[in-house]
Amino acid sequence: MKLYEIESKIQEVIEQGFSIDEETGELFESSDLEALEIDKAKKCLNIGRFVKNLLGELSMVEIERKALQAREKSLKNKVDSLKSYLEVYAYDQSFLDGTVKIKFAKQADELVIKKDLSEIPDLFIRIKPEIREVNKIELKKFLKDGNSVEYAELVERQKKVTIK
Fold first, then answer.
1. What are the φ/ψ torsions at residue 121 (nearest 5 degrees)?
2. Which one of 28, 109, 115, 160 has the fewest beta carbons within 10 angstroms of its own beta carbon?
3. pTM of the model
């Protein structure tokens, strides 16, 4: 797309007479542009028009990039929404045919410690040489048996669906 008309000799030299390092954008000049016998003002104005054309093209690329990013976000949201639906609709079942495999993984409950270790009873503490840490296995069993404590709680993890 051309926004501005550029003298053909100048455009040809710019498009073919320069080489650009694609990684750095560095411009390696050709002596062909210097060799063109065109009025300095005319040459500069035509180069300016060429730059404006490039800026216009750059603007269109940016618009297209934003549109593609929006499309990507929309598709990701749709995938997440459909996976959430499957988690509710068909959890604990697996489905398989020649093209798709749907499998649900139940993740274990997560134990969240709310307070400092010094406030947790020794029953739920194991001591390694010089290290005092929570015995999460024992504390988790205790909480799963219906007991509650103020320093920890069981939190159900999200269900996970895999589609291949």
1. -60, 150
2. 28
3. 0.48
